[in-house]
Amino acid sequence: MYTFNRKITIMNTNHTTKVYDLTVDEERLSHMMKALGHPARMQIFRYLSENPQCITGDIVEVLPLAQATVSQHLKVLRDAGLVCGTIEGPATCYCLDGDNVAWFKRQVGSVL
Amino acid sequence: MYTFNRKITIMNTNHTTKVYDLTVDEERLSHMMKALGHPARMQIFRYLSENPQCITGDIVEVLPLAQATVSQHLKVLRDAGLVCGTIEGPATCYCLDGDNVAWFKRQVGSVL
DNA sequence: TCGTTTCATCGTCTTTTTACGATAAAGGAT
DNA sequence: ATCCTTTATCGTAAAAAGACGATGAAACGA
User: Fold this and answer.
1) CB A50 within 8 A of CB B12
2) Is the CB of residue B45 less than 8 Å from the CB of residue B81?
3) Cα distance from B73 to chain A (closest Cα, Å)?
4) How confident is the model over A39-63, as a mean pLDDT?
5) What domains are there in chain A, each with its CATH number?
6) Who's near A40: CB < 8 A, 6+ residues apart?
7) Whole-number Cα distances in Å, A57 to A49, A90, B21, B46, B69
8) Contact residues on chain A for B27, CB-CB shorter than 8 A
9) In what order do the strands lie in the sheet with B54-55?
10) Closest alpha carbon to B105 in A23, A59, A8, A108
11) Which of these, B7, B13, B94, B112, has the minimum number of CB atoms within 10 Å of its CB?
């Protein structure tokens, strides 16, 4: 028998439910965090917050990345719901998704 | 010459500074987001917020991951500054880093 | 001292992400 | 109709992340 002298108090005693699943909201939150967890995408996000309406090309000009790469990052941000793009002639006009960004902030404030 | 009829207004005109670097804070913020951008780490984070003092083994019990993997995730959270661990006998006691978590929330509220 | 427990780290394999050139679709100009 | 611009997507190569077994260090009990 080996029992080491733990100085800490255990608060969760019922380990009947082994797995500690995330809620749908937490999952979504994590997904958004992942999207912003890349410097380039954080840059894009900030750029969009300062330049509410701009097209892909504007962002490409400002980042040291190829157009294809920027487009890919924009897709990640879109899939996370942080950004939405509307086709504007031959271009695509991007802007932050206000509702989802607000939700994100709220979640960070409350859930975490 | 080709000029397509853009319906949107351009707000940033001075493209003298081509690169749009992140500030130190934004970089740090992105780093923290990346850490929480993985479901397992989000789970650990929430677990720690509900069980303020617990050792690695407690977390391993609760996640469907090997001990080595959990330890690796804890390192990521530590490196991001979200969590700190203190050696407690043969074990390591983990808890959230209150100051940094508070900073994180503040940043999300203001910067984004 | 010797066995036991806890945990971080190492080595390795697999999967995912990132980045880019090339290409094609879509829209506007001429 | 033809050319030009914009951008998403494809294919691919390189880099990073994720997962796990094995190992070793640290701490305690017997």
Assistant:
1) yes
2) no
3) 14
4) 96
5) 25-111 (1.10.10.10)
6) A63, A65, A69, A70, A73
7) 16, 11, 17, 39, 41
8) 39, 42
9) B54-55, B91-96, B83-88
10) A108
11) B13
Q: Tell which residue, A22, A108, A28, has the closest CA to residue B40.
A: A22
| The two structure tokens encoding residue A53 | 């309406």
Q: Which residues of B touch A62 (CB under 8 A)?
A: 15, 18-20
Residue whose pair of structure tokens reads 């720690």 in the numeric block? B48
Residue B89 is predicted with a pLDDT of 86
Q: Which of A95, A93, A94, A99 is nearest to A28 (CA)?
A: A99
Which of A:3-32 have CB within 8 Å of B? 4-12, 15, 18-22, 26-27, 29-31
Candidates B43, B29, B38; CA nearest to B104 is: B29
Question: Could you say which of B15, B43, B109 has the minimum Cβ distance to residue A20?
Answer: B43
A2 reaches B (C-beta below 8 A): no
Q: How far is the CA of A28 from the C1' of C5 (A)?
A: 38
Which residue is it, tokens 């709220």? Answer: A106
For residue B10, pLDDT over 60 is answered with: no
What residues contact B26, with CB distance under 8 A and at least 6 apart? A42, A46, B111
Q: Name the residue in chain B with its Cα closest to that of A104.
A: B108
Handedness of CA A6, A12, A14, A17 (dihedral sign): negative
| CA B79 to each of CA A6, A52, A67, B88, B96: distance values in angstroms, whole numbers, following the listed order | 25, 33, 32, 20, 12
pLDDT tens across B14-53, in order? 334 456 689 999 999 999 999 999 999 999 999 999 999 8
